UniProtKB/TrEMBL annotation, chains A, B:
<protein>
    <submittedName>
        <fullName>Sugar kinase</fullName>
    </submittedName>
</protein>
<comment type="similarity">
    <text>Belongs to the carbohydrate kinase PfkB family.</text>
</comment>
<dbReference type="InterPro" id="IPR017583">
    <property type="entry name" value="Tagatose/fructose_Pkinase"/>
</dbReference>
<dbReference type="InterPro" id="IPR002173">
    <property type="entry name" value="Carboh/pur_kinase_PfkB_CS"/>
</dbReference>
<dbReference type="GO" id="GO:0008443">
    <property type="term" value="F:phosphofructokinase activity"/>
</dbReference>
<keyword id="KW-0808">Transferase</keyword>
<dbReference type="InterPro" id="IPR029056">
    <property type="entry name" value="Ribokinase-like"/>
</dbReference>
<keyword id="KW-0067">ATP-binding</keyword>
<feature type="domain" description="Carbohydrate kinase PfkB">
    <location>
        <begin position="9"/>
        <end position="292"/>
    </location>
</feature>
<dbReference type="InterPro" id="IPR011611">
    <property type="entry name" value="PfkB_dom"/>
</dbReference>
<dbReference type="GO" id="GO:0005524">
    <property type="term" value="F:ATP binding"/>
</dbReference>
<dbReference type="Pfam" id="PF00294">
    <property type="entry name" value="PfkB"/>
</dbReference>
<keyword id="KW-0418">Kinase</keyword>
<keyword id="KW-0547">Nucleotide-binding</keyword>
<dbReference type="GO" id="GO:0005829">
    <property type="term" value="C:cytosol"/>
</dbReference>
């Protein structure tokens, strides 16, 4: 099974209001509650694909109980470590124009709770085929938490996919995960040179991303570039794959669908071109779905047959013919 | 004991942000969670005063569990009927300037759950000295719910204090509660003639409020007028009492502190002048406290010794000397 780790999950609330009026009082017309957090979206996508999956991480308080209940309702297998603090909420207030977001910081995790999670994670590595490590770290968890988890997974021979940002990403990369999936902005935050000013249409140049990745990571990295698609950079290869048609929809959760596809492909040792095409298709299908953690199966099937991975002309060293993995 | 009924309680969340940016994403710096709903504030104030109190009403789901846990932490005795729906949340986003509020509508209550509550309420009337009925009705509860509860209380010889608005207030008044406490706006919504245009400073004229009350209610009504203080209107008396010094602070919960004072005074058969002065003082002390359900004991003590109830010159029929009850 694929084990998805979410250390800072959330209860995602979406409030529909007529119009957001700063410093006014709003009667919320409808409330949507969903289990939130990037790793939970990965688990939900994999579960919908019929892949054996287990969602783990940290949950606490009444909000944590609610998240667990919502996952249970969706049939997603889950085994979380309980903590004393309250799992955070996110509130998205949606009016006719756009969403206004409020993100709680998350509970403070004690050293004893973190040690308990490490024990649990160690146990889960037995049956795991791949682990995914997604999202932010709650207060109290060490900054090198993902490096620790990557190292434990390596000892157990289980490949780890890392999708986070900031210091958690920088520390995690030092442990050389089997795969990392930052988006272009998250990469640029760690290696500002990867974003030249002014950026060309479609984001930073492929060459500068490749250079940034190779300066930061010893292993393969897939960089997501929104509508620009995915760029896979390994120590000696570069592949890119973009959606064949422009996408319109809800980009939240597209990166998590991408991680779902990549983790499954890593387990199956899928070659880079097919792997990237599948990840692009599942990401596009997630954009086409109204909520994070879901995807549009028609868009998935369609895009999967049309997306093609290529070796970019502009990659350092130019196109090469190898398609290993 | 005083039984406080809250049919639509809430988990009140206060989010501190730097500045509210419509359609932006906000990292919430701090989150405050409190048990919310007008009747819970009444219970918390009475409990802090050392009065025997029991908070009852409807609670459901993980949010309801959280509200019960927060009440337990504060030591407030509570016995709520569990429902299947999720208790609502309110979110107040506070930036440097003011608060922006989002109010969830509340769970839908089934007829079976409402019947269960009526049984529970009937049981609680045995030991009750006074009942307070505060706040909005959740979806599914009949519009004449408060009329039903007032009638049950009457049969048991227990005085009921009603503090609600709109149709719930209109229906409730028909059952002639021992006391009703609308604010001037809530009264004006039922009897628009009580708010002349333009309103004089301090709100509608005393005479028009008295006329409105006597047109709507057969029993005594205390109308709260913010800084203008309280106006008590009985079928044959009028009393008013205003805070001796202008108040600056948080008016949320001041009405609930007022109800707490009135319900205690009703139990003790306190004469109108002392009753109004006590209610004005406790309301002022609530304004001086940063959060609803709390009060500043120094302001309470001070205001209690200085507030004086008078028979207003402008009352229909002019000043009269009686101080009965």
């Amino acid at each position: 099974m694929i084990v998805t780790v979410t250390l800072n999950p959330a209860l995602d609330l979406t409030y529909a209001v007529d119009a957001l009026v700063p410093h006014g009082t709003h009667r919320v017309a409808t409330v949507a509650e969903r289990p939130g957090g990037k790793g939970l979206n990965v688990a939900r996508v994999l579960h919908t694909l019929g892949e054996p999956v287990l969602a783990t991480g940290l949950l606490g308080g009444a909000t944590g109980t609610r998240v667990a209940a919502l996952l249970y309702d969706e049939g997603v297998p889950a085994g979380f470590v309980r903590i004393g603090g309250e799992t955070r909420r996110t509130v998205a207030v949606v009016d006719g124009r756009d969403a206004t977001g409020f993100w709680e910081p998350g509970p403070t995790v004690t050293p004893a709770e973190w040690a308990l999670f490490l024990d649990e994670f160690h146990e889960l590595l037995g049956p795991a085929t791949v682990v995914t490590l997604s999202g932010s770290l709650p207060p109290g968890v060490p900054l090198d938490a993902y490096a620790t988890l990557v190292a434990l997974a390596k000892q157990a021979g289980v490949p780890a996919v890392l999708d986070t940002s900031g210091p958690a990403l920088r520390h995690g990369l030092l442990a050389a995960p089997a795969l990392a999936k930052p988006n272009a902005d998250e990469l640029a935050a760690l290696a500002p040179a990867s974003r030249p000013a002014p950026a060309p249409p479609g984001g930073p140049a492929t060459g500068s991303i490749v250079a940034a990745v190779r300066g930061l990571a010893a292993g393969p990295v897939v960089v997501s570039r929104g509508a620009g698609g995915l760029l896979a950079v390994t120590p000696d290869e570069v592949w890119e794959c973009a959606p064949p048609v422009p996408l319109d929809g809800n980009p939240t959760g597209a990166g998590d669908a991408c991680v779902a596809a990549l983790s499954r492909g890593l387990r199956d040792r899928t070659p880079w071109p097919e792997l990237l095409a599948d990840a692009v298709a599942l990401s596009a299908a997630a954009v086409a779905a109204p909520v994070a953690g879901a995807f549009d199966p028609d868009v998935y099937r369609q895009t999967r047959t049309t997306a093609r991975a290529v070796i970019p002309e502009t990659a350092p060293g130019g196109p090469r013919a190898r398609t290993h993995r």
